[in-house]
Automatic annotation (TrEMBL):
Compartments where found: Cell membrane
Major location category of this protein: membrane
Similarity-based family: Belongs to the COBRA family.
Biological processes annotated in GO: cellulose microfibril organization; plant-type cell wall cellulose biosynthetic process
Membrane topology: Lipid-anchor; GPI-anchor
Domain COBRA C-terminal: 138-330
Full protein name: COBRA-like protein 1
Keyword Transcription regulation: no
Pfam families registered for this protein in UniProt: COB_C, COBRA
Keywords: Glycoprotein, GPI-anchor, Lipoprotein, Membrane, Signal, Transmembrane, Transmembrane helix
Annotated transmembrane regions: 341-360
Organism of provenance: Pyrus ussuriensis x Pyrus communis
Presence of the UniProt keyword Acetylation in the record: no
Length: 361
């Protein structure tokens, strides 16, 4: 094996001369760490098992390793497809399908004058499911706007409910005098969130604030807050759906990539942190948030009415965040309650002012 390693060699007692690297029928393969000696590396290997998304970092979005399988024969009729693939990640969530034979992979010689091909090539596709990964959602969305003083919080119990009576230690009060000891004593190897006690009980909250309204533009502020005391989210990303992303003019302190999952309709964008600046979302605390602002040009469909200025969907690290109910969105002030001054009142006020000025002249 090159570029990876099996976690267990297994029972190789039946081999007397050349001892195989691994004799397990169901081996677990892990990626090698960065800094592995070159004679143990393989092309595109040694990422330490950490893969970025293709949009954020194409170089670190793939990892490879090579296995030489003994007693497999030398023809594509003796080689058997592997079965029962499982993609192990921190926590469940991935389901892998069967191996499918595809067109053999071709290899080009260094001088680019000769092409050889593999005996057989197969693909295995693994799909992530948020419902398999955890019983409750992991993030929620809150909303606010400059034209309404009310802040729409995350829906209550968006990611589970606070139940210290039945599950002690499920959350930590931020003003607890023993906060440091509780966090330090928590199981650091556990990926179960240890969250700050809130009404929503989510590890992540995304806040969308409609900040300014200009003549031809409008501005939005996005804040991502980490309520999880156990985890730093490195290389995090947001996927936001909003109809005005087709007119995005400028974005501050986030990276941006337009996505068109619906053909030519440009209403979805991927946002992520800038390297060495805010690409790591720290644990819950004063530094546990990242912020940015987006400047949009007003398109033909622009309006602040009926919640149009707020996102349709928000995803954090691939998980669908819980949105507030539509009837709770910040509303525009009701024009029916505005005071209107009649033309007769203005004329009478003007004549009264002139009369007073004439009397004291």
């Amino acid at each position: 094996m090159v570029g990876g390693e099996a976690t267990d060699q297994g029972d190789c007692s039946k081999f007397r001369t050349t001892i195989p690297y691994c004799c397990e029928k169901t081996p677990t393969i892990v990626d090698l760490l960065p800094g592995t000696p070159y004679n143990q590396q393989y092309t595109n290997c040694c990422k330490g098992g950490v893969l970025s998304s293709w949009v954020q970092d194409p170089v670190n979005a793939a990892a490879s390793f090579q296995i030489s399988v003994g007693q497999a024969g030398t023809t594509n009729k003796t080689v058997r497809l592997p079965k029962n693939f499982t993609l192990n990640t921190p926590g469940p969530g991935y389901t892998c399908g069967p191996a499918n034979v595809v067109k053999p992979t071709q290899f080009i010689s260094p001088d680019k004058r000769r092409v050889t091909q593999a005996m057989m090539t197969w693909n295995v596709t693994c799909i992530y499911s948020q419902f398999l990964a955890q019983a409750a959602p992991t993030c929620c969305v809150s909303l606010s706007s400059f034209y309404n003083e009310n802040v729409v919080p995350c829906a209550t119990c968006s990611c589970g409910c606070q139940s210290n009576a039945t599950h002690p230690g499920s959350c930590v009060e931020s003003d607890s005098p023993h906060l440091a000891s509780v966090v330090s004593a928590s199981d650091k190897n556990s990926y179960t969130p240890l969250v700050r006690c809130t009404n929503h009980m989510c590890p992540i909250r995304v806040h969308w604030h409609v900040k300014e309204n200009y003549v031809q533009y409008w501005r939005v502020k996005i804040t991502v807050t980490n309520f999880n005391y156990r985890m730093n989210y490195s290389d995090w990303n947001l996927v936001v759906q909003h109809p005005n992303f087709d007119n995005l003019t400028q974005i501050f302190s986030y990276n941006y990539k337009s996505m068109t999952p619906y053909g030519r309709i440009n209403d979805t964008a991927m946002l992520w942190g800038i390297t060495f600046y805010n690409d790591i979302l720290m644990q819950s605390g004063p530094l546990g948030n990242v912020q940015s602002e987006l400047l949009f040009q007003k398109g033909e469909a622009f309006t602040f009415d009926k919640g149009w200025a707020f996102p349709r969907r928000v995803y954090f690290n691939g998980d669908n965040c819980v949105m507030p109910p539509p009837d709770a969105y910040p509303r525009l002030p009701n024009s029916g309650f505005q005071q209107h001054v009649s033309l007769l009142t203005l004329i009478m006020t003007f004549l009264s002012t002139v009369a007073v000025m004439y009397a004291y002249a």
